[in-house]
C-alpha cells in the first residue's frame, strides 16, 4: 500500500504541477458548461424574413409586420429584388411572395394565397420557419381578414426535408477536423517524448523548415480523406452535388490548412502527448457544438455567437451546404474561403513564432 500510495501521489503531483494542466482540468470544464448551457437551443430564432410585393399591398405588409412582431423573425437586409436570389445569396431565410396582382386583390377574389420561399438547407430550421409562419397566420391574420388564407409553400434545396442533407455536411467537417487536429497536435510532443527532438533541432534545418515538414504531410493526409468522405456522402446518403467539385476541393484545402495549423499550434504549446491530446479535444468539443453542426448559430446570444465567428468549422460547414445543396453563391464562397485562409495563416504563423530550436 505504501508503494501504491507513493505512485498515486507521484501521478497527482506530476499532473497538477503544470499550471496549464490545472486550467484544462478545472477551469475549462466550467467555462464550457456555461457556454453550452447558454448558447445551445433547438428553437429557431432570428429568422431573416423578406417580403416580395408592392408596398401598397396592405394585407401582405400587415402579414409581414405580424411575423416580425412575433419575435421569431427579423427583417432581412436584401440587396436584390429577386426573391430566389435573396435566398440563394444568404440574405434571407424566408421570403413572402405576393400572388399576381397582389394579396389585396387575391383576397377580394376569395382566394388569399401567399407563396412562402424557405431555405431548407437546414431541414430543422426550415420546418420551424413554416410552422412559425402558419402559427402567425392562424393567430392574427385570419382574425383580421375574416377569410381563410393559405400558403403555397415551395421548399428550396431540400424539398423532402431530409435531415441527412443538413447533418451530413456537418459530420463531414467534423471527421476532417478530427483527423487533422488530433494527428498534428501530437507531432512535436511525440518527438519530445521519444527523445528524437534533440536530433531534430541538432540537424542543419531552419525552424521554418521544421514547421513546413510538420505541416505539409498532414495537409496531404487530410486532403486524401476528402474524396473518400465525399464519396460516402454522395453515394451512401444521397447528398446532391449541385456546385463545382473543384471549388469544393479548394475550400477543403483551405480548411485542412487551417485545422493543421491549429493542431500544430496546440503541439507547440503542449509539453507532452497527454497535454496535446487534451488540448485537441478541448478545442474540438466546443468548436463542433458552436459551429452550427446541430444547432443553428442564429439561436445563440450575441456574446456566444462571437465564438462561432472565430471557429473554422462554422465556415466550412457553411461552404459545404452552400456548394453541395445550393449550387454555390460566389460571394458566400469568397467570404468563407477568405476567412479560412486568414485563420490558416494566423495559426501557422503563431506556431512558427512559438517553435524553438532549443530544449
Which descriptors would you attach to this protein?
single chain, 359 residues, alpha/beta, 5-stranded mixed sheet, 67% helix, 8% strand, elongated
Could you walk me through the main structural features you see in this protein, from its secondary elements to its overall organization?
- The chain has 359 residues and is α/β, with parallel strands linked by helices.
- It is 67% helix and 8% strand.
- The protein contains 15 helices and 5 strands.
- A 5-stranded mixed β-sheet has the order 2-1-3-4-5.
- Helix 3 links the parallel strand 1 and strand 2.
- The mean pLDDT is 82.
Record the SSE blueprint.
Layout lengths: L1 H15 L2 H21 L7 E6 L5 H12 L3 E3 L7 H6 L5 E4 L5 H6 L4 E7 L3 H23 L4 E7 L6 H23 L1 H8 L2 H6 L4 H29 L9 H25 L3 H17 L12 H8 L2 H15 L3 H25 L5
Parallel strand pairs: 1-2, 1-3, 4-5
Antiparallel strand pairs: 3-4
Helix pairs in contact: 2-12, 3-6, 7-10, 7-11, 7-12, 7-14, 10-11, 11-12, 11-14, 11-15, 14-15
Shape: elongated
Order of helical and strand elements: HHEHEHEHEHEHHHHHHHHH
Number of helices: 15
Strand order of the largest sheet: 2-1-3-4-5
Name the helicity range: 55-70%
**Rg, Cα atoms, Å:** 25 Å
- Summed over residues and divided by their number, the pLDDT gives a mean of 82
Weakly predicted, low-confidence segments? none
Taking the sheet with the most strands, its summary is: 5 strands, mixed
Number of strands: 5
Q: Strand percentage, roughly?
A: 5-15%
Going by helix content, strand content and strand pairing, the class is: alpha/beta
Distance between the termini: 37 Å
